[in-house]
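Weekly structure sync - notes
Attendees: PM, LS, DV (DV joined late)
Agenda: review two folding runs queued last week.

Item 1: First target. Sequence and structure tokens pasted below for the record.
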Amino acid sequence: MPIDGEYEPSTMSWVADQVADYEASGGTRANTLRDTGIPVFLVTMRGRRSGKVRKIALMRVEHDGEYALVASKGGGADHPDWYANLLADPRVEIQDGPAPFDAVVREVTGDERALWWERAVAVFPQYAVYEETASAAGRVIPVLIASAGEH
């Protein structure tokens, strides 16, 4: 079931521009994190307070058709806003290429989080630094997994 409603682009213009370019091109443009060459995918969700459709691009950490959503916020002291959106409503659309698909997210902990964290760091080694700075601020970086067909 698609996430319908009024779309409100990110207030960060580079995020809004990347999402728009990615969608307009079917994932052939704006498909990496800035100049890093690291692939990204899009996540569409509903805002918990506004009810509006929100979209973000995240580093592509995929395994057997499941995607990790790493709520790193650059290792900051607080979780990104989108994390609370997904706790409130775990239904999302994932777009990794031309066509989005419906998925449901769940937060992982323990050994499963450790496995996905290892996969995430393999894609984006900077996550290890983010983990140190978040930990110093008393925060564990949440990892959520999006799986298709669990509605």
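Item 2: Second target, run right after the first with the same settings.
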Amino acid sequence: MNIAADSISIQQIRATGAGGQNVNKVASAVHLRFNVEASGLPEAVKNKLKAIRDRRILSNGTVLIKSKEHRTFARNREAAYARLRELILQSLHVQTKRIPTRPKKSAVRKRLDSKSRHSQLKRGRRAVKGDD
């Protein structure tokens, strides 16, 4: 499956967090924006991708992936591409239809017998009311 190159834009930004003085002068974090409509994906995949309930998918149909866990821009870019690939593969997954099943008669009988035994046990622990 091919994705149009113009549907992906990468913005290099400064990472936040620990790192000393280097974090203030090196832009190693990545914002990857993926325009679902402009991509070369089939319509069914586009619809499934937009239907996924994920905070990275914006209301206008753009996927925004942030990557800042690595120290270099190249590794963060690869991590962002990997997350995008994972998200697209998740939209390709077809959920298998669940076939409802019923418990077997023996299992129902066993459960009800267990409940009645437990009830008898608790009934035997009650205080006996005597006729005085």
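Discussion on item 2: Strands lie at 8-13, 29-35, 62-67.
Action: LS to circulate a short write-up before next sync.
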